[in-house]
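User: structure tokens for this one?
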Amino acid sequence: MDSTALDPFILSRIQFAANISFHILFPTITIALGWVLFYFKLRYHRSGDAAWMDAYFFWVKVFALSFAMGVVSGITMSFQFGTNWPGFMETVGNIAGPLLAYEIMTAFFLEAVFVGIMLFGFRRVSNRIHTLATFLVAFGTTMSAFWILVLNSWMQTPAGFEMRDGVAHATDWFAIIFNPSMPYRLIHMLLASGLTVAFLIAGISALRYLLGDRTPALRKALTTGIVLGAVLIPAQILAGDMHGLNTLEHQPAKIAAMEGHWETQSRAPLILFALPDEEARQNHFEVKIPGLASLILTHSLDGEVPGLNDFVLEDGTIKHPPVVPVFWGFRIMVGIGMLMLVMAWTGTWFLWRRGASENPLPHWLALGLVPMAVSGWVATLSGWYVTEIGRQPWLVTDVMTTKDALGPVAGGMVMSTLVAYLAVYVLLLGAYGFVIVRLAVKAAKGGDERPEPGPAGGTVIPGGKDAMPQAAE
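Assistant:
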């Protein structure tokens, strides 16, 4: 066997990438879905329309499943800090450790305390308490994202610390938390979560719609997903532009790889398509628009865009990230974003034009929305790869390289655990998708029953023979 096939550095990177790729799928859903569930509760609280609670009860099942998957898959990543990458905590543990602890104390504990009330307490507590629990769980998921993104952003643009004997020590926690890229990354990720959930709701609702579901709850969820996507995608485009300007200032090598430019130039073209060749240091089969990259990145046609050759040392050492995955990851993310824009705005137009019609969407559009249920995952993973691969060869920019963090692990051991991880992840992901589709099919066929009646003394939500009791306030 080729010795490179068991290189512990390469295998450890693949293993961590597999772990985080699987894990990020589920927080991306729970962060925004918690707020959507809170929105459903508020609409029910104001209107008394039981259809909002029907929508809530369907999607809270998806939230519970996603929450459980996210918690379990996150544990394996923390193990790898000690097994595969001990150098990370040895060097920057004084900063990374407290930030991870803040996430547990301010977010995870909050979610853990109130998620039980949110999932099982609707007939045991008052409507207001249940709504409050939903709010606190949604707030907890957002706080969790905040602290994780603080740490990740600090690794990208470190600030507020000093090195003593090769170890990072905090000197300004405000500067650490609000490091130069944190606000942009936080906004970008929260919007990405919102879009992921918007199209998940729209896609699963479209599947139910195609199966003949025309219930008020289905229509409310479908409208929420499509309109939410239509509102958030322009905001994400604006946030992406601001994030790009920040990245150009603080991580120019990443921008050079994203754009596929080898030489620094003014009036730089926007390369729509190319096959980057890192050995020849050039692109093949370029399709480009003159001057547009400079206009987008610097807001000036004469703006200067960095080239990859500026990040090669005289001895030939390459200090820029791998070009191909960053270049194509960025284009996949942007391409999915443009498709989201078209689908969401088209869906919103039909919802507005057809009003209260029994069939608010044409058949072809509903068919198109079904695969869009996973579009947020594809865009999020693509953007995450751009962010993380684009930081290479650094683990913490200008502080330590990724290779410096590697521990004394055997390639064979990493390979065996990697295979085991991948097998489990494929099985779990398949089961997750199967359960959600099964829930959708069951709901479309009228088998999604409301919860059992609560204790005596509850008030009843209007709804005929299927009226749902709710504990009195």
